[in-house]
Amino acid sequence: MSSALRFEVVGEAFKKKAVEVPSPAERPSEFFAKYVFTRQKMYKYLSAEAYAKMCDVMDKGASFDLKTADQVAEGMKRWAMELGVTHCTHWFQPLTEGTAEKHDAFVEHDGKGGMIEEFSGKQLVQQETDASSFPNGGIRSTFEARGYSAWDYASPVFVIGDTLMIPTVFISYTGESLDYKAPLKKALYAVDKAATDVCKYFYDDVKRVISNLGWEQEYFLVDEGLFATRPDLLMTGRTLLGHDSAKNQQMDDHYFGSIPGRVAAFMTDLEIQALELGIPCKTRHNEVAPNQFELAPIFEETNLAIDHNMLLMSIMKKVARKHGFRCLLHEKPFAGINGSGKHNNWSLATDTGILLHGPGKTPKDNLRFVTFIVETLMAVYKHNGLLKASIMSATNSHRLGAHEAPPAIISSFLGDQLSEILDHLENSTDDELITVAGKHGMKLDIPQIPELMVDNTDRNRTSPFAFTGNRFEFRAVGSEANCASAMIALNAAMAEALINFKQRVDALIASGTEQTKAILQILREDIKTCRPIHFDGNGYSEEWKIEAARRGLDVEASCPIVFDRYLDESSVQMFAKTNVFTRSELEARNEIKWETYTKKIQIEARIFGDLCMNHIIPVATRYQSTLIDNVHKMQQIFPAEEAARLSAKNIELIRTIAELSSYITENVNLLIEARKVANRIENEREKAIAYHDTVAPKIEDIRHHVDKLEMIVDDELWPLPKYRELLFIR
Ligand code: ADP
Ligand code: MG
């Protein structure tokens, strides 16, 4: 396909698909959550009794009986039918990184040969499905294939098209979690309980601690016409070959640049749809790489934030197609330029305010602040390997450790001021500490520090877990991932740290130590213990890798081996203590992780082999034949010596093509062999390791040779759109 032809593909797509910028008649405040069954709508559509009951259920954890469920379902159905809804589905998050739904119509026999619209409380609350085809890691055999989904009323139902969507957890017949939401809710419950208990040292009236999440979704847009001609993008979400474009991101001219018209139309359309579904979109901008963008909403309670992210990812893909684009959520669609992440801004808040917020008005506020900071660091320190495992995947591993992304070592950036506070606290004496507690703080000066700190917290883009004033930003999460994976590990680890903290403080108090003194003493111990996790330097540097290993941090970079961290005794104990996962659930989930890893690389290897043998080699051979033909003809029209001189360059090219082609052919065969050997391994972990060690590196190596051919072969013949076309033409 020639450049001109490729351009036509784009032009056609553009002509067909160029969509006008939608201009909503109303303001966002008017259409926000239009398609969500919010509390306001409950008030309108439910009876007074059902509404009051529902509020008790949502706010006070009252039990949800079937009578109330029937009443709520009736009101919901009335609201939904006014929007033209005919179906409903339980919407859940199996371990596939996507969401799942099975639609049922609102129809029932009326007993007189006709139909009535019916939607019962039972349908709302619970559904039974054959779950055997969802990943389950061997927890369920086909003879006990029942799976149950149950409504999560902390996340409101919403309408998409003609369907009422009910967010649910998904569990097995025997009660094990088969999804992300069930363990997430357990982790959030654990951190709520543990953090509330610790808050009670400072304030009696704290009733609840909420975990907040503000994610920042990065993505690429590629023209749909070009996308369709790249089997690798189509099948794997990333380009398996393609030479660097002469210009990519070196000019830094895309980051925060003005948003191209066609993309702006897409963004506006997307935001309207997202806002209508209650997703509080706030920020949009161009990212660092060409054709890379970001969308970030205002943070929300973690469970809801995750549902909203899952929902957003699915509508992004739909809206992109409407605008003639394909939306790439893969962490590394293009080699040589930045990949995409999904920074997870995480904080804890009480029912009255944010816990990680620096500026406190009283020493008590400040001590509480320092407590939560130090215990976060303890959690991240103790489980740094596990946290890495929680964000690790076949696709995200392309990004970790590369130069634009968080390194494959988890550490935490605190900034100068916070570091100083912790240093000071660690080295201060008991007397000074008591002074602080007595509000006369001079040396430690906790009451005055925070004002400075919030504005002066510097940024460090190389840190995977950075303090940014009132929250930690977990930057290693991948763009395609379900944030729940990271949030389960982080919140559960935090719960454990707080439980341990409280146990030790209580023991001191029981032996006669005054409370503030006891808290400070334990904090001092913990600051010392978790010192290795604190690193404000350049996380990308080679020295850090050596230093981190010396400090005992997890420096493993092989994806299948990193998954082992889930089965470390410290992880198993932590998840048991917080009631998030049992050992067998962890084992089952790891089976799925290894299997998924293998399948992803397997698909890549297959499609890559096809591309090499069916697309690249034939074209290279054809071009080579043209050159050979030319050399022969030169001999016919020029004297031998002159012909040899004039054809020298072409002969060189013929040789290069021959060498590259034979290297590629030979190694594609070796790649197939490596796959066959790996496929014979029964153990999922060993198989994944074989794919990691023997298959994946072969793809990268061969790719390098294909990319060299791309630079030589006639552009007219090259069968695939090149990076410069994929990344710059809109
Ligand atoms: P950045 O400048 O880091 O790229 P963005 O504005 O893109 O930041 O996104 C920051 C995200 O952090 C938003 O979702 C924002 O709502 C969220 N956020 C702000 N404060 C908190 C907090 N205390 N806890 C959790 N998330 C927060
Ligand atoms: Mg950020």
Structure report:
By secondary structure, this protein is of the alpha+beta class. It has 3 domains: 32-179, Glutamine synthetase, N-terminal domain (Ubiquitin-like (UB roll)), CATH 3.10.20; 188-581, Creatine Kinase, Chain A, domain 2 (2-Layer Sandwich), CATH 3.30.590.10; 597-726, Four Helix Bundle (Hemerythrin (Met), subunit A). It has 25 helices and 17 strands. A hairpin with a 5-residue loop joins strand 3 and strand 4. Helix 10 (261-276) crosses helix 11 (302-322) and helix 13 runs antiparallel to helix 17. It is globular, with a radius of gyration of 29 Å. It starts with a helix and ends with a helix. Bound molecules: adenosine-5'-diphosphate and magnesium ion. Magnesium ion binds at residues 216, 343, 473. Adenosine-5'-diphosphate is lined by residues 212, 214, 216, 283, 296-299, 345-347, 354, 470-471.
**How many angstroms does the end-to-end distance come to?**
19 Å
Overall tally of structural domains: 3
What is the name of the CATH class of the largest domain?
Alpha Beta
User: Which spans have pLDDT < 50 for at least 5 consecutive residues?
Assistant: 433-456
Discrete helix count:
25
Please count the beta strands (DSSP E, at least 2 residues each): 17
| pLDDT averaged residue by residue | 89
- Structural class computed from helices and strand pairing: alpha+beta
User: What is the H level of CATH, i.e. the homologous superfamily of the largest domain?
Assistant: Glutamine synthetase/guanido kinase, catalytic domain
- In the CATH scheme, what's the topology name of the largest domain? Creatine Kinase, Chain A, domain 2
Radius of gyration over all CA atoms, rounded? 29 Å
What ions, cofactors and ligands are bound? adenosine-5'-diphosphate, magnesium ion
Specify the helix fraction band: 40-55%
Strand percentage lies at: 5-15%
Largest pleated sheet: 9 strands, mixed
Taken from the alpha-carbon principal axes, the silhouette is globular
CATH architecture of the largest domain: 2-Layer Sandwich
